[in-house]
Amino acid sequence: MFAAASLHTHKRPALPKRRSFLNLLSVLCLAGGIWMFGQAAWIEAKAIVAQVLLERAFSHSILLGKPVKAWSWADTVPVAKIEVPRLGADAIVLKGASGEALAFGPALLDETALPGAPGTSVIAAHRDTHFTFLKDVVKGDLVKVMRSDGLLFTYRVTGTRIVDWNTSGIDRHAAGFHLVLSTCYPFDAVSRGNQRYLVEAELVR
Questions:
Q1: Taking the model in full, what pTM does it have?
Q2: How high is the pLDDT of residue 18?
């Protein structure tokens, strides 16, 4: 009995260390959660504020008849405003899919047609900010696109599909007037994958 009691008394001092480790682990997990939440909130806040500035620059572009930067150091300019009336969703579209452009809004891919022009216009954006609404777009929805020259074009959604990023089958020189809205897929993924979600539409004459 004495030996058992002695053994028991030697184990007790380890408990505070274990509690300290668990407390530290809990603090680290909490800090990590707060950091991740903060990062997500910062990205969303940046996207919202940027769209306000871009909306102003887009309006000035139409009034002045020339591209206007949203901020002096921007490496892109607003070229269009896209709207899905049924969903009440809209966003200012930037020129070229550079890292800065995609961080602040949807971007019209270089070497694709200007909305309203023959061929295929391809507009891409992040699934967790400006193109979260794409998952709710359905066949038959109208997509309105106003260019920075003030011309308005209306497209009707013909369908949606999921493709690999390098086998999309998009023909930028296709006959007719086409619009493709593209974002990463799946929508609830936490990291960027190889799949893309495409919303395809045709110009309404």
A1: 0.74
A2: 57
